[in-house]
Amino acid sequence: MNQLGRSTVEVTPLGFGAAALGNLYTPVSDEQAHAAVRAAWRRGIRYFDTAPHYGLGTSERRLGAALREYDRAHYTVSTKVGRRLDPADGTGDDLADGFAVPATRRRVWDFTADGVRRTLEASLTRLGLDHVDVVYLHDPDDHAEQAFREGYPALERLRSEGVVGAIGAGMNQAGMLARFVRDTDVDVVLCAGRYTLLDQSAATELLPEALRRGVSVVVGGVFNSGLLADPTPRATYDYGRAPEELLDRALRLQAAAERHRCTLRAAALAFGGGHPAVASVLAGARSAAEVHDCADQFATPVPDAFWHELRDTGLLPPAEPS
Question: Cα 186 from chain centroid?
Answer without folding.
Answer: 17
